[in-house]
Specification:
By secondary structure, the chain is of the alpha/beta class. The protein has helices spanning 2-24, 46-59, 61-86, 112-123, 139-149, 165-175, 194-199, 222-244, 261-264, 268-272, 285-295, 316-340, 347-362, 365-375, 379-396, 398-403, 411-430, 448-473; strands spanning 33-36, 39-42, 101-107, 129-135, 155-160, 180-184, 189-190, 207-216, 256-260, 275-276, 279-280, 299-310. The protein is 57% helix and 14% strand.
């Protein structure tokens, strides 16, 4: 209740602050005369402000109805997602000593201290074996694992020269002995009681894959905090709703996901030879495995009560790179899933995929109409749009604010970053065939000329959206 009251107070304070700044920036103070569509209107009070907004909207409904339709669609989607997520219930943990599982982790370019902490957290969860597939150049991590392995015969190390995360995972899967395989990133820390939580869903013989709730290990920079907000949107809306509405997830996260060995072991050839538009795919191994499992008819499950911690982007450059890679992988996998047809048999999942694709374009209309309202001197409408952004985003990130109420100060930045993420998604769609090896070398870098062409094409698409809106409205 405290958090609800705090959020309401801060939101109203921010809204009235913006409103006050708007009034103070006019030529006079409280009684400012503004000439809008040849009428003299006065901002006498907040009620007059609302009345002015409604009057402008009534006379210029043709201008703002498209935005209203998009707004209704976005809020309808969020409401459906929210209602569906309310039906989600994580599976209570039960004794799982009879279920044996292997942890497989690919190790490349990893901080040895972080790697050591990660392995120690897994050991606390009593896996039947841990297989570390380590790049041949990672000498320090090899030594760290050897030291931890002393008197622990269940810890095994494989050293490989093949670049890429997929070959490393495949190598580990081939030698894994046990019925459940946990694929875990080398910088991922587990809670000490995760074992029973992540294995309990496999009591259901139709569950083929399980994923966990994830949070950043550190929240030192703004970008780590922003990433935490995005992750919580997935933790508290997307994954619960997808689990409740058919046990079909869009992605079992590569940071930690568990599969039945009998499912993924026979599919390693498909896993290692995935192509998109004629080009072999290297990244997006988690999306690929998620698709292969569900395409075979298996269910997937999200365990909110199983918590893992990983490192989030520390700066904008890393944030951009991660979002770009994830967006490409999502576009690739979603379009392929819909093309193959199996996703249509899972209505909520296909609905989620289609909406996610549409949102690439609809997210741009808010800023476009905001700019138009300023261009036509409809300042009260512009302020209303701004207020709706603050209210809407604030409401949607409320589950995160319950964890970190002080992050309310990041709300304006989060709103702006959502539009930046929309541009990243559009750029990812334009560059959908681009790949990057896990082992970074000069051969994997995109030529500057190609980058320029991609940026120009993305700008042309965005410009086309603006031209279409302006042309239709005129």
């Amino acid at each position: 209740m405290y958090n609800v009251i705090l959020f309401a107070i801060i939101f109203l304070a921010v809204f009235f602050l913006v409103y006050s700044i708007f009034l103070l920036n006019t030529e006079n103070t409280l009684l400012q005369k503004i000439d809008i569509f040849n009428s003299n209107l006065y901002f006498l009070s907040f009620i007059d402000f609302l009345g002015n907004s409604l009057m402008i909207f009534y006379q210029y409904a043709w201008l703002y109805i498209p935005l209203g339709i998009i707004g209704v669609w976005r809020w309808t989607v969020w409401t459906i997602k929210k209602i569906c997520s309310l039906y989600y219930t994580p599976i209570d943990k039960s004794p799982t000593r009879d279920i044996k599982y292997s942890i497989i982790t690919p190790v490349y370019n990893e901080d040895p201290v972080i790697f050591k902490s990660a392995v120690e957290s897994w050991i606390l969860n009593e896996p039947d074996e841990i297989i570390a597939v380590i790049d041949s150049r990672e000498k320090t991590c090899q030594e760290v694992f050897k030291q931890i392995s002393i008197n622990r015969p269940s810890l095994k190390m494989i050293v490989i020269d093949k670049p890429g995360k997929r070959p490393a995972l495949a190598e580990g899967i081939r030698v894994a002995k046990y019925e459940i395989i946990a694929l875990v990133d080398s910088d991922t820390i587990w809670d000490k009681d995760n074992r029973d939580y992540v294995l309990s869903p496999f009591r259901d013989k139709m569950i083929g894959g399980v994923t966990t709730r994830q949070h950043p290990i550190e929240r030192k920079t703004i970008w780590q905090k922003i990433t935490d907000i995005f992750w919580d949107m997935r933790n508290y809306y997307d994954l619960p709703a997808q689990t409740a509405m058919g046990k079909s997830l869009s992605c079992l996260s590569g940071r930690t996901s568990l599969y039945r060995r009998e499912i993924i072991s026979p599919k390693l050839d498909q896993f290692l030879n995935e192509y998109i538009l004629g080009k072999k795919k290297e990244s997006g191994e988690d999306k690929c495995l998620t698709r292969l499992v569900q395409k075979s008819g298996w269910k997937t499950y999200y365990q909110m009560n199983a918590v893992i911690y990983s490192y989030a982007a520390e700066d904008f450059k890393t944030f951009w790179s991660q979002r770009l890679r994830w967006s490409r992988n999502s576009h690739n996998s979603d379009l392929l899933s819909l093309w193959e047809g199996w996703a249509w048999k899972r209505p909520y999942l296909s609905f989620h995929m289609i909406d996610r694709f549409i949102s690439i374009f609809t997210l741009f209309f808010g800023p476009i109409f905001f700019a138009l309202s300023l261009f036509y001197n409809h300042y009260s409408i512009a302020l209303s749009i701004l207020g709706l952004w603050i209210f809407g985003r604030g409401l949607k990130i409320f589950p995160h604010l319950r964890r970190y109420p002080k992050d309310i100060v990041l709300l304006p930045l989060y709103i702006v970053i959502n539009f930046i993420v929309a541009m990243i998604k559009l750029y990812a769609l334009v560059t959908i065939r681009d790949q990057k090896w896990i082992r970074t070398d000069h051969s994997s870098k995109k030529p500057v000329r190609k980058k320029i062409k991609d940026v120009i094409l993305t700008s042309e698409i965005l410009g086309s959206l603006v031209i279409i809106v302006v042309t239709v409205l005129r």
